[in-house]
Amino acid sequence: MALSVASNAGNSNDPDNSARVHGGPDAQGVAAHDFSTNANAYGPCPLALAAVQQADAAHYPDPAYTALRAQLAALHGVAPARIVIAASASEFIYRLTAWAARTLPPDARTVALPPHGYGDYAHAAQAWGLRVVHAGHGRGAVGDLGAMGAVGAAPVPGLHWACEPGSPLGQADAALAGWRGAAARGGKCADTAVDKSVDGAGDKSVDGLVDRLLGNGRREGMRTGTHTGPRNAPGDGPSDASARTLATVRVLDCAYAPLRLSGQPSLDAGTLDAVWRLYSPNKALGLTGVRAAYAIAPAGAQTVAQMVAQLEALAPSWPLGAHGVALLAAWTQPAVHAWLQESLHTLRRWKARQTALLQAQGWQVLPSDAPFFCARPPVADVADVPALCAQLRRHGVRLRDCTSFGLPGLVRLGVRAPASQDALLRAWGDSGGAGADDRHTWPSASRSLSDFGRRK
Cys staple from 33: which of 88, 218, 401, 420, with CB 3.0 to 4.6 Å? Predict the structure, then answer.
């Protein structure tokens, strides 16, 4: 793995553009058939929904969330002191980034991101003026830090994010192989090493697969710029020497871990205990309108306990309302997890059907371990994909254009029920796709993939 200076905000092609692109409802409201969101389409979970509906909104929650912390700690088999309550995953991302900007040593004020991932990682870093780098499988691309000499002999400390299965690709995060190595070396919180090559996968990696789909070296908006903020962020450094040992903080975003449909996690239990873990179960429960999350701190070190206290100090009072408390409390119940397992069986069947339907229409579908995946519609040009998405939206079908992820020409589709899949096929035909009278406007599925991604 190499680190490359970020050329976009993950969810924004222009790092100076504050606009953020997300799946789900848009200005037109909720689409009749919304493939743009990664929420569990089998949901909402009836037990969790009932708990939210019955929440006591007439009173404040316990400001310390004592019972909730104990429930979440028991679910994961950790001490309650390791649980950090958050208003949402995004809120924790911003809070942890603020902590990094104020607390990490000046030479560690760098945020390392997946090459394609949730845009709030980068948005938060840029808001605090932190340097943003992408962990990729660089082959000498412009902005590759290996070529610039910033990776290799010299470690790259800072705040490191990973997500597995990651969005939008639904695949493993290659950086986690390096995290395993750091844990094996005993570098839990104090580890500062970032390996230049962590997986040895080469073109077998997810990035290599995307390169083959889009045409190696022709993806637009990726690894082509320089960092957009000052290396040093506002705020004082750590007040005591022990805090300085936290030169690298690793955070695994587990948003989609409960929705894994295939494959195996990259980190074993011991390595997981050495990194921060962030959970936002509203996606798995099909209740994304309820914002609630929690993080689990690494085990052991006194410096981690200090970091937890500092993160609590950065939070407002009552970051979680009564409905969020109800959602997370329901998440700890065995019956809810039994429902989740049932939903995964259904999602696997729906995913197989959805994939087969798209492939039969000439779409190129990338492999994924999650109930969402990326696909290349058989359109004539990368520039046609946003127009296709807009056209499908007029038919009540919403897809997620992946341009903002640095993957122009691809769309992300959440797995949906068969009725919505059929609606997508009808909208595709009405929009001029395969099966329509003017199908000659759409290229054959046999078109060379090496040509895709090249603007005419």
Answer: 420
Pull the structure tokens for residue 39: 């929420």
Q: Tell me the CA distances in angstroms from 449 to 22, 357, 403, 433, 434, one per residue in order.
A: 27, 20, 18, 18, 18
Can you give the C-alpha Rg of the chain in angstroms?
Answer: 22
Rounded CA separation 223/206 (Å): 16
Beta bridge partners of 376: 364
Tell me the fold of 33-42+336-451.
Aspartate Aminotransferase, domain 1 (3.90.1150)
DSSP letters, 252-319, are EE-TTGGG--SS--SS-HHHHTTSEEEE-TTTTTT-TTS--EEEEPPSS-HHHHHHHHHHHHHSPS-S
End-to-end C-alpha distance for the chain, whole angstroms:
32
Q: Please, is 28 exposed, middle or buried when counting C-beta atoms within 10 Å of its C-beta (0-12, 13-18, 19+)?
A: exposed
Q: Rounded to whole angstroms, how far apart are CA atoms 398 and 136?
A: 29
Confidence of residue 19 (pLDDT cuts 50, 70, 90): low
Distance from C-alpha of 70 to C-alpha of 78, rounded to nearest angstrom: 9
The helix-helix angle for 89-103 and 119-127 (nearest 10°) equals 40
The alpha helices in 39-88, defined as continuous H runs, are 46-53, 66-76
Three-state secondary-structure class, residue 111: strand
294: nearest Cα among 316, 275, 276, 274: 276
- Reading the block at residue 63, the tokens are 């400001």
Place of tokens 């998405």: 389
User: pLDDT tens across 111-158, in order?
Assistant: 999 999 999 999 999 999 999 998 753 322 222 333 222 333 334 789
Q: Which of 196-210, 288-302, 313-327 has the lowest mean pLDDT?
A: 196-210
Confidence of residue 210 (pLDDT cuts 50, 70, 90): very low
Mean pLDDT computed over every residue of the chain: 79
- Contact, 76 vs 296, CB < 8 A? yes
Maximum alpha-carbon separation in the chain: 71
> Strands, DSSP E only, in 164-227?
none
Domains of the chain, residue spans: 33-42+336-451, 45-333
Closest C-alpha to 231, from 126, 374, 373, 95: 126
Contact 82, 73 (CB under 8 A): yes
Rounded CA-CA distance 61/322 in Å is: 6
Nearest to 160 by CA among 265, 243, 276: 276
- For tokens 């090559």, the residue is 197
- Among positive and negative, which fits the CA dihedral 327, 328, 330, 334? positive
